[in-house]
Amino acid sequence: MSMKERVKYILSVMVLSMVCVMLQAQDKNLIQIKAFDQQLAPLTHIKVSINEKEYISLENKGGTFREVPNEDLPPRSVKINDETLEAESWNYSKGILSIMVRKKSYKSQPITVMTMDHKPLPRVTVTFHGAKNTESITNAQGIFILPLALNEEAPQATQFAIAGYKVMQMTSSKEGKILLVESLKKNKILPAENVAQKDILADFDINQLDSIRSLTVFYAVFKNIEIASLPFDQKERVDAKFQQLVRQLKNEQKTSFVGKISDSSFVRTDVENLLAQARYENDLLDNLRSDFEKKIGIINEKLTGGASSLDQATRDRLLDDLNTLEHVLTENEDKFYKNLSSYKIILSSLKSSFFDIQNLEQKLEVSESKRLEEQKTFRQQILIVVSITLVFGILVIFLFYLRMKLKKQQKSLIKANDEVTRMNENLEELVSERTRLLIHANREMDIFLYRASHDLRTPICSIMGLCNIALHSSSAELPELVKRMSYTAVRMDRMLKKLRVINEINQPGNYSIIRFSEKIEFLRQEFSQVIGDHAIDISFDFEPDLSFYSYPALIDTIVYNLLDNAFFYSSLKPGSQPKVYLQARIERDNLVMRIRDNGVGIIPEIQMNLWDMFFVGSEHSKGNGLGLYLVSKSIQTLGGSIDIDTQPNVFTTFTVSIPVNTERVTRIASEAQKTTMLELV
Q1: Measured between alpha carbons, how far is 358 from 348 in angstroms, rounded to an integer?
Q2: Closest by CA position to 625, among listed 617, 616, 633
Q3: Distances from the Cα of 6 to the Cαs of 292, 528, 544, 583, 611, in angstroms?
């Protein structure tokens, strides 16, 4: 495959890749994702998941840009990779997804519900009685998620309930907690006692009605009996018994006020119960007095109408009973007044206790106000002490800072003094080194002037000689003479160009972006005649978009001269096709180039002199000995290095490493890509 076909293939692959990326980008949106806490401060170093997809890192700025499929927008769910955090809310608007994050107030416990034979129970409702009662439904695998408070202990089997099932026990496994349950039987056999009781109630004898003492038993007896079908006298007895039980229940409720007073009841409720009890007894006394007067009236009527028919013994017994009644009433009166007096004394003590409580509350209020005042004074004193301590602390820190600064200055002075002493001691050595460099520079200058004048004079003499020959030659020989004059002029021009490059090496300029593929394409056109004349097989290995920032003139000088040497010396080797290989890579912000040829190689004796000015390493060389000298000087100016790996009559490889700036190129390319994506959106 030729070079043009390879370039066309690479370009076609790049075009297809770009088309695929554009088609894929049509189904996605470039959005900005941000996360905040409840104080609206950005959250950093967390990862979020949208709709149960992969987690996206928000890096250290609390936000990032990410391509998200259209089907995931707006998000249906957002998860945080931190188990202690959860997404409180989120909002997607105008290409920005804002997520509000809060700390979890609960923890999630997965639990699997299984029968006793370890079969999962899907789609059942599980009720949990804990710090907060919750209901959950198991999924197809019988699993549900139980939310627990952070300080809540591990759940127990007794805290769960499932309709139609009895919870047996809670076990643990590698997958989590397992709740084992057992199905309840639908048909239950009534105990023999209930059957017997049911039969007894069904065969109840109405003559035993007086044995019923509560409405509950009354309902149990007569709920299966049709009251309307009973005889009239039995129906009256049933109604009378029902009214009696209702009045009994009301009396029990009324007399239960005092029983409501206990150590755990409130004082206000106790007083209300006592008041209700007193009013009830007042109404009861009025009712008893009325009933007692009615009964006395009936007895008087009986005595008035039939007292004369009573015998003496009956009259005596009746009189004794009346005396006894009078004595009992007198005792009741004494007890009533004693009780009334006791009640009044108790009420007085309650009132005094109440007033004592009020006084105590007033005293407590005064004491509380004094305590608050003392607390305020104490806080002011603490504030003053803290302020004084803070001032002294700042003063101590300031003094410590001054001391450290003085120490630092002292160390700097000692270091400067040592440096001055060292410089004084090495002054002669520095002067000697500068003198040596100056002598070397003068020697190079002398050599340069001598060789430059010699190399410039040689082609001029050649041109002059050819001109003289042309004056005495026939017209048929003139084309050959002109051709030689042109060749001599071209050599002279190449040498002058190289001499001009020396000035550019010492004062480089035009720091700009270099597209390596364009440089190589230009040089290949430059050497096209040489490549064609000698049938040189040249191959390149570098990325098509290889770009960096450097000095173009120096890069041109390095690549041009190394390729010129490779083409020339690979064509000197007889019996084999000349081959030249150029590789370029960016490795750790350095441009690394390797130029290899299969030429005559370099013998070890001349390798140390390759970089000298006007050094010609081969008798076959048609150059002037400036090529590798310019390469060495250019690499030295760029702060790089060059290595040689050679084997005589086999190969020669030059490896060049030059620091370049790729960060700026990457940043510009990234900004251009973002602009293109935004335009597509």
Answers
A1: 15
A2: 616
A3: 131, 18, 11, 16, 36
Residue type at 25?
A: A
Find tokens 């020339």 and name the residue.
568
Beta bridge partners of 80: 48
601 in Cβ contact with 652 (< 8 Å) = yes
C-alpha pair distances (Å), 289 with each of 284, 343, 499 = 8, 21, 145
**Position 597 confidence tier, pLDDT thresholds 50, 70, 90:** very high
Q: Which residues have a Cβ under 8 Å from the Cβ of 127 and sit 6 or more positions away?
A: 133, 134, 135, 160, 161, 162
Give the separation between CA 162 and CA 137, rounded to whole angstroms: 10
Closest to 548 in 3D by CA, of 672, 661, 671, 668: 661
- Tell me if 549 sits within 8 A of 511, measured CB to CB: yes
Where is average pLDDT lowest: 230-239, 475-484, 639-648? 475-484
User: Is the Cβ–Cβ distance between 618 and 599 less than 8 Å?
Assistant: no
User: CA–CA separation, 678 vs 675, rounded Å?
Assistant: 5
Query: Average pLDDT over the chain, rounded to whole?
Result: 76
494: pLDDT confidence band, cut at 50, 70 and 90? Answer: low
The C-alpha atoms of residue 267 and residue 263 are separated, in whole angstroms, by: 10
Q: How far does the chain reach from its first CA to its final CA, in angstroms?
A: 40
Strand order in the sheet with 651-659: 537-541, 579-586, 590-597, 651-659, 641-647
- Distance between CA atoms of 529 and 567, rounded to whole angstroms? 11
CB proximity list for 426: less than 8 A, separation 6 or greater: none
Measured between alpha carbons, how far is 554 from 551 in angstroms, rounded to an integer? Answer: 6
Task: List, as own/partner pairs, every contact residues 296-301 make where C-beta atoms lie below 8 angstroms and the sequence separation is at least 24, other chains included.
Answer: none
Query: Given a cut of 70, is residue 60 above it in pLDDT?
Result: yes
Distance CA(607)–CA(611), nearest Å, equals: 8
Q: What is the dihedral of CA 429, 434, 439, 444, to 10 degrees?
A: 130
Q: Give the 3-state secondary structure of residue 249.
A: helix
Query: How many residues are present in the chain?
Result: 681
Nearest to 658 by CA among 538, 564, 548: 548
Q: For residue range 354-376, list pLDDT tens digits in order.
A: 666 566 567 767 777 787 788 78
Q: Is 111 exposed, middle or buried (0-12, 13-18, 19+ CB in 10 A)?
A: buried
Q: Which amino acid would we find at residue 121?
A: L
Contact 111, 134 (CB under 8 A): no
In DSSP notation, 96-164 reads EEEEEEEE-SEEEEEEEEEETTS-B--S-EEEE-SSS-EEEE--TTSEEEEEEETTPPPP-GGGEEETT
The answer to whether residues 638 and 569 touch, using CB atoms and an 8 Å cutoff, is: no
Measuring CA to CA, which residue among 606, 604, 627 is closest to residue 618? Answer: 606
pTM of the model: 0.35
